Amino acid sequence: MQQQFLRLTTLAILALMAAHPVLAADTAPAPAAAADPAASYVTVSEATRSEIVSNIPVSGTLVPREEVLVNAQISGYAIEEINVDIGETVAEGDVLAVINDSTLAAQLAQANSELARANAAVSQARNQIASTSSALSEAQAQLERTEQLKDSGNTTQALLDQSKSAAAAARAAASSAEDGLSIAQAQVAQAQSQRDLADLNLSRTRIKAPVSGVISARNAKIGAIVAASGEPLFRIVRDGEIELEAEVIETALGLIDVGDPVHAAVAGHQADKLDGKVRLISPTVDQTTRLGVIRVSLDTGSMLRAGTFASATVEVDRHDGITVPSSAVVTASDGQTVQVVKDGTVERRDVRAGILTEDGRREIVSGLEAGETVITRAGAFFRNGDKVQIVASSSDTAPASVPSAPKEEAAPLGTPAEGAAQ
């Protein structure tokens, strides 16, 4: 009974609409607007001119720029005092440690005594020379008088021979005295050398800092016997300066120059980035790893710790250029292209792409001008002359409104739009 009632009601309504066509026209839904079946919805971006920075990523370890080894310069004596420890700052000339000097002090005293004895021998030799010189002068004068007397017949040959013998003996004594002085002077020089060595060794019992800096290692211990050929007693980082030692692949090493700016991130350091410059580039590459080494001096290098890991970027180039989103560049076997949109039509454009920037944009070296619009997604699916409709721009703050499509299946981006429901 209920079904029969519903059927009758429906027939009555249809009859009423047939009797009043104007009413039917007013209540029927309007047909959907027809869409261009050849158009595709696309997301685009504008080619922009901006500053392009080319960076090379590197990583490595913080190391002392210059580490100075402090060794003992004497052997066989015990350390009796240590004045510094690891991490302390020292100035050039500061006493780091003291070695027991009692034996060396005694050696210096003995050397001073030997030097005094040698000086006394020199004085004695000089006195001997003076004495023999006087005797030689007298003997020579006596010989001359005797020879004159012999010539005049007033003396005998025996007295003349005696005078000659006396003069010869005086000359021999004078020569011996001269030799004695030379020997005594040589002994003074030797004693002086021994005294200087003893004094030097005594001074070496005070281990001093050869440079200003920070103590990075201490091997010295109270009571330890030092050896000149042993391990260093201390290590000092000159001026406390720490720098980055980083490895670079050989293909990138040639792009880096001394003085290039560097931005580093150091593990555990409160600053987000530390600025620096390339100080040194290794002239060789490891034949096994194919890596080269660079040294980077960092600002506030004295506040860093050696051995810490750090990553960095080396800025090798900075210039103005045109960029587009990297997704807009299509790379194929025959080269690189972008799809330029002009008046709703696609133009396939050959380009030469450059570097990829940190914000994900690709440099276009040639083939595109600033201000031109390119498809940023699915560009490989379009050909010259294709019709497109822009639905969004990657530079817009909000996407442009998308043409309406049936609610049950929205038209996907980058594909032809479906026509309205018939």
Automatic annotation (TrEMBL):
Keywords from UniProt, A to Z, are: Coiled coil, Signal
GO CC annotations, alphabetized:
efflux pump complex
- SUPFAM superfamilies with a match to the protein in the record: HlyD-like secretion proteins
Q: Where is the signal peptide?
A: 1-24
User: Which superkingdom, per the lineage?
Assistant: Bacteria
Q: Is the keyword Coiled coil assigned to this protein?
A: yes
| InterPro entries, per the entry | Beta-barrel_RND_2, MdtA-like_BSH, RND_pump_MFP, YknX-like_C
- What's the protein name? RND family efflux transporter MFP subunit
Lineage of the organism: Bacteria, Pseudomonadati, Pseudomonadota, Alphaproteobacteria, Hyphomicrobiales
